[in-house]
Automatic annotation (TrEMBL):
Protein name: 5-aminolevulinate synthase
InterPro entries from the UniProt entry: 4pyrrol_synth_NH2levulA_synth, Aminotrans_II_pyridoxalP_BS, Aminotransferase_I/II_large, AON_synthase_class-II, PyrdxlP-dep_Trfase, PyrdxlP-dep_Trfase_major, PyrdxlP-dep_Trfase_small
Residues of the Aminotransferase class I/classII large domain: 46-390
Cofactor dependence: pyridoxal 5'-phosphate
GO MF entries: 5-aminolevulinate synthase activity; pyridoxal phosphate binding
Length: 409
């Protein structure tokens, strides 16, 4: 049997649909964010990264790097086991306390990644609730969708951010049925925000539990970086808050924060928590340093918002099709997978600007885009250079600018 034929056929399907992914080999330079080296097929090039999820540059912050180096030097590299088997080390316990405090919850629980937090967190919670009905936002991230699927219980999808539709489903489910509402606070491809207060109102009225993914908001919103829920004053009304250490906190790992018994139950039953090695101590110390820094420093948050606003304003003034976004995400509409990939390639090769194309299935077909994420360290001259480069690329690819661009979107 020629097994290769199956894999080649699968890859060819992606090529045919123009959505075969190519990863650029990048080397970030500590202290020079957002500048990096691109190890291209033709040799090394200096590039500027415009699509990093290290939103605040904390992955290179001296306090964070220092904590990682200090801990690795003092205690070594790996955790040495699963949480149950010698892997519960002190920096991890400290980090869980820090996260519980960040979200005003009794406890928190760490996972290998934000992906695993959602996948194993949602499925475990729903399995522990008899006859649970999951109500899931239509644009939830794949990790939540997988968690919902693995829960094996009934699920219904409510239209994105549509509280009227959510209410219809809650009413139809009846007051006695246990219900879990799962949504994100900030949707990373469009940059829009969930009406969390309205969702909490509904959850309280109809007796549902709430699970909110704050992956793209923790560290960046709220006076202490507790996320959109903190900003909107509803943190205490949400049952389970989920976040990542890999974006604004610049490290790796995911977590949930909730009441003690919820965390204890997930800790005791979630396979994705139980059967895997704990996060390394150095990562935990670095994340703790980032969280502590962002609990008191507003500079990164304010400058981040300022840079995002300026980027949107400059690109919009240049006639580029900036999609509406309420947050730090700056999506630029392309609407064609091949042109999206070409635009990304031209930006990198001709202008030293790295922005990964966003194609199906990450976004719906026909809404392909470049997803730009400015950081506190993208200065005015970098923003101007980005606008110039985009205009040249748009012209070269025959993509619309000005009024035509808005009509195309
Ligand atoms: N939730 C959302 C909404 C995400 O966008 C992502 C990843 N980008 C995750 C969860 C997974 O987080 P992590 O990268 O920490 O696995």
């Amino acid at each position: 049997m020629d097994y290769s034929q199956f894999f080649n056929a699968a890859l060819n399907r992606l090529h045919d649909e123009r959505r075969y992914r190519v990863f650029a080999d990048l080397e970030r330079i500590a202290g020079r964010f957002p500048h990096a080296i691109w190890h291209s097929p033709k040799g090394q090039r200096n590039v500027v990264i415009w699509c990093s999820n290290d939103y605040l540059g904390m992955g290179q912050h001296p306090k964070v790097v220092g904590a990682m180096v200090e801990t690795a030097t003092r205690v070594g590299t790996g955790a040495g086991g699963t949480r149950n088997i010698a892997g519960t080390h002190h920096p991890l316990v400290q980090l869980e306390a820090e996260l519980a405090d960040l979200h005003g919850k009794e406890a928190s629980l760490l996972f290998t990644s934000g992906y695993v937090s959602n996948q194993t967190g949602i499925s475990t919670l729903a399995k522990l609730i008899p006859n649970c009905l999951i109500l899931s936002d239509a644009l939830n991230h794949n990790s939540m969708i997988e968690g919902v699927r693995q829960a094996g219980c009934e699920r219904q999808i409510f239209r994105h951010n549509d509280v009227a539709h959510l209410e219809e489903l809650l009413i139809a489910a009846g007051p006695d049925r246990p219900k879990l509402i799962a949504c994100e606070s900030l949707y990373s491809m469009d940059g829009d925000v969930a009406p969390l207060a309205d969702i909490c109102d509904l959850a309280e009225k109809y007796g549902a539990m709430t699970y909110v993914d704050e992956v793209h908001a923790v560290g960046m919103y709220g006076p202490r970086g507790g996320g959109i829920a903190e900003r909107d004053g509803v943190m205490h009304r949400i049952d389970v808050l989920e976040g990542t250490l890999a974006k604004a906190f610049g490290c790796l790992g995911g977590y949930i924060a909730a009441k003690a018994e919820i965390i204890d139950a997930v800790r005791s039953y979630a396979p994705g928590f139980i059967f895997t090695t704990a996060l390394p101590p150095a990562i935990c110390s670095a994340a703790t340093a980032a969280i502590r820094h962002l609990k008191t420093s507003n500079w990164e948050r304010e400058r981040h918002q300022d840079r995002a606003a300026r980027t949107k304003a400059i690109l919009t003034a240049a006639g580029l099709p900036v999609m509406s976004s309420d947050t730090h995400i700056v999506p630029l509409f392309v609407g064609d997978p091949e042109k999206c990939k070409r635009a990304s390639d031209l930006l990198l090769e001709d202008h030293g600007i790295y922005i990964q194309p966003i194609n199906y299935p990450t976004v719906a077909k026909g809404t392909e885009r470049l997803r730009i994420t400015p950081s506190p360290y993208h200065d005015d001259s970098l923003i101007d250079a980005l606008a110039d480069a985009l205009l040249q690329v748009w012209e070269r690819l025959g993509l619309p600018v000005g009024k035509k661009a808005l009509a195309a979107e």
